[in-house]
Amino acid sequence: MTNKRLLLVGDNPFHGISHLSQERAIARGKNLTDPAYAAGLVNIALDNGAGGFMFSVSNTTLSILKSACRGRKPGSIRLYAIVPYVFEFVRMAVTEGGILGLVKKVGADIITSVNIRAVSHGMKGVITNDPSSLLKAYLLYEETRIRRAAGKAGEISCIFLHEVLTDMAISLDMEWLFRTHIELMQKLGIKPGIHTHNLPSLVKKFRKWGIDTGKITLTTQFNSLGFGMTPSREECEVVLKDIPETEFIAYGVLASGYLTLLDAVNYLNSLPQLTGVAIGVSKEKHAEESFKILSKII
Amino acid sequence: MKTKIAIVGLGKMGLMHASIMGMMNDVEITAICEKNGLIRRFGEKVIPHIKILENLDGFRGMGLDAILITTPPASHYPIIKTIYEKVVARHVFTEKPLAINYQQAKELIGLAEKNGGVNMVGYQRRFSVTFKKAKQILESGDIGNPISFQGHAYSADFLGAKTTKQAIGRGGVIEDSGCHVIDIALWMLGDMKPIKASVKSLLGSGSEDEASILVITNKGIKGELNSSWCKEGYRLPDICLSITAEKGILTVNEDRVQLELNDGKSTVWYKHDLNDTVPFFIGGSEYQRQGEMFIRAIREGQKAYPDFLTAAKVNQLVDAANQLAKGAAQ
User: Fold this and answer.
1) Are A175 and A194 contacting, i.e. CB atoms less than 8 angstroms apart?
2) Which architecture characterizes domain B3-117 according to CATH?
3) What is the residue-level pLDDT of chain A in tens, covering all 298 positions?
4) What is the number of helices (H) and of strands (E) in chain B?
5) DSSP symbol at B176
6) Which of A23, A81, A158, B118 could form a disulfide with B297 if both were Cys (CB 3.0 to 4.6 A apart)?
7) Which among B166, B234, B278 is the nearest to A94, CB-wise?
């Protein structure tokens, strides 16, 4: 590993989720979903070597971000945001009455966000029934929410499209979705990011479509166990080596707590192509020790 | 030759099944049927290479091999009936539950038998590596015969919901999420019937938010199956079954299998330990395996499981439990 490798604190524990076990998530208690407590953890990680925060954009994470950024130097936190927060959207679709109810709710939020560009893209999208304009409206709305929460302390380095959206788009040949995202992010001066669970399939499609992976950031799971690496660890590693020009953020390096930090470090050190690593923390001691160790060793 | 499929419903489940099918080499998504005009028009722009039709009649003459139904439960019965009666396609997959009551389910079994194709219902938990492992352990006989069991289907979907409209729209909690734990219990322990049941409304205005069913299997094993969609802490839905047997306790949910033997030995298998890999991942690896089984069954002329006959047992148990709960409330 090189010293340039970026360390990010991840947000998964703050959503009350553990991909190792539901019991573990419940046992962690409510503290973690309290924005003030979670912001404290982010700050401890930042003080001990983390360079930024990687998070799915939701009201909870934006509250955490707002709290964490308070009192920090301008531009001192690099932000790697993932949109939409699909699990929250699925929950909203359940409680708001299906996809239509969800669309109405998000539409209303965009209008009340008073982001003129977002509203204008949204109106164009509705009038012309143009998904690309609607996507732009949504992305601009999220970008504004992040900026408002982060203030001057946070610098949006990258906005990722969430894996569920990305992987659906790969399968259903929605090339327009990727092109719209990349084009808009480049206009905004933000690195376009793609979050995927299916790295080899994504890269294969991008090559077919002629989308340059050198201009984007990719994030996917990487761990010695191959957990969450589809279709296999070996195939993901081959693709990683095959696109050295791409910025790559690994997450899930502890396989949701199944592996030790030492396992993770040993594995990460065997993959110099990874440019960054995101790790979630759930306790103050954990946040301090993990990032202290990681920043020294990798 | 590619298997030509169509999907009914362009909601989240429709998109997920389309994505799974879309990545299978020898499957072609020929068309999607979506009743809502707004979603249909939007869908035409989002995935222009797939035909999006307003009703099932449009599927006729397309030479479809199979149809996947992903619409709300109340629509399953009329849609499947139409598919079979108008011979739109020979093979049918429907999301769970098969129908909204046992009477409808029985009719659909009859139609499916007459039709002769592959039929399958989306109780996807059976394809999860942890539940498969638990069934394997139970069938190995290593823990002896089951003595009792307890299961739950918990989520926080409606925890703190301000209105009951959406909860009522999904039917009761037993039909909606409770059916998963009922299916798993039937799969692992065999046929059973309810002996006592209660349903509670937590949100008000007639919603059915929490339920408890006491059951007995044909072998005389008693168990309790609970469900709730207002459960604190269950940010993700949790389906869990714990079986107390002669030599120990076997507990399984989506994340892990735990075997605690009476001699004090305990073993835990997480998903991580059970080779939970698939060629393409979206929504959960179990959905991919379920889809693969459906397509393989079509190609190889085999049966797919759970089929309509198997899934109807869930309807039968749910109907009987609801009757008992109504009786108890009066």
Assistant:
1) no
2) 3-Layer(aba) Sandwich (3.40)
3) 445 689 999 998 887 766 666 666 666 666 777 889 999 999 999 999 999 999 999 999 999 999 999 989 999 999 999 999 877 777 676 666 666 777 777 778 877 776 777 777 777 777 777 899 999 999 999 999 999 999 999 999 999 999 999 999 999 999 999 999 999 999 999 999 999 999 999 999 999 999 999 999 999 999 999 999 999 999 999 999 999 999 999 999 999 889 999 999 999 999 999 999 999 988 889 899 999 999 888 7
4) 10, 14
5) I
6) B118
7) B166
Query: Could you give the CA distance from residue B131 to residue B125 in angstroms, rounded to a whole number?
Result: 7
Note whether residue A111 is domain-resident: no
A221 assigned to some structural domain: yes
CB contacts of B276 in chain A (<8 Å) are 227
Distance CA A254, CA A280 (A): 9
- Give the distance from CA B199 to its chain's centroid: 21
Q: Which of A274, A221, A222, A264 is nearest to A243 (CA)?
A: A274
Chain B hits for A19, Cβ within 8 Å: 255
HSE-CB for A19 with a 13 A CA cutoff: 17
B126-280+314-329: CATH superfamily? Dihydrodipicolinate Reductase; domain 2 (3.30.360.10)
Nearest chain B residue to A14, by CA? B235
Counting the structural domains of chain A, the total is 1
What are the boundaries of each domain within chain B? 3-117, 126-280+314-329
